[in-house]
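Below is how a single chain appears once it has passed through the pipeline. First comes the sequence as given, then the structure the pipeline wrote out for it. We keep one example in the README because the format questions we get most often are answered faster by looking than by reading.
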Amino acid sequence: MTKRLIATAVGLSLLAATAIAQDKAAEQSVLVATVPVQRGTLPDTLTCYGTAEPQTGNTSSISLPRAGRIQQIVVRPGQKLRPGDAILTFAADAAAVMAWEQALAALNLAREERAHVEQLLKQQLATRSQLAQAEKAVSDAQAAIDALRREGGGQPFETVTAPFEAVVMAIPVNAGDRVAAGTSLATLLRVDAIVVTIGVEPSQRGKLKPGETVRLEPLDGGAAVAGTVATVGAMLDPRSRKIEATVDVPRDGVLPGAAFRAIVTVGEFSGWIVPRAAVLNDGKGDRVFQLADRKAAAVPVKIVGSDGDWTVVDGDLDPARPLITEGGYQLSDGMDVRTEPDEADDKKPDVQKSGGPKS
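Resulting structure:
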């Protein structure tokens, strides 16, 4: 009985000693998370910011060639118009109405005079020269009518309409205003003449080329819009100290004044694709850690490029060794490490995430 008790006590002591040793070993190691390493590519992107605005030379000022009074304005700035939509109603000035009536009276009188001369010529009481003069008077009176008609004559009241699909940029007049001939009544912007102007750092200008696809993300929320680089400037903007580039957008794709983040894919990076957090710097250079027989193996690397949460590096990584992604900041080369007991050796990063790599 005594021997049995002694044996039991010795066994418990051994178990306790083993547990203590395991706990001590665990305290001296670092808990890490790992993923397999893989090669692939990441997009090389250029991120800029800009605002949607009218393309130079694509705004139109609507005016009338005669004086008059604004009766009613039926639109407001920012409103979208289709061709033929009413903008305002206009009443011609009394002098313009009188000029039209006088021109009509002059034409009627000239026609009557010509008819009279033709009758006299048949009776040999007038000459052909007199008939020619009468016909010229009719021609001159008709020309005066045509000129007034081109200027809106014969329309004491008129509805001014949009000549094309547009957005109302400004209405510089008010209902009741008396305006002179040629006064701007409305400023319209063609809906297909809106571009997003972005600012590019001078050092990045060489990467941007006309025709490249741009992803435009509204800063105030909403769905992204695809655009195309139209022009790349050749001088610095004096205020922003950046190069201005314009991006063509789809018809009805953006609203004037909207702010965007523009992401342009200008190439791609190739190499080892690792999570950004896995790349560390000790002041001497960048490095990552791989798991080698439950020890941390430091591998010097060179960063090729990054996109989102992923980084492409170049270095002598061993594709058979998992990459340490968490806990690396506590490690040094050769340090003991441990992983979660149920951590799968074949766990892989989700390379399909936004901006993620393509293997």
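The two ends are 68 Å apart (CA to CA).

See the next section for the split statistics.
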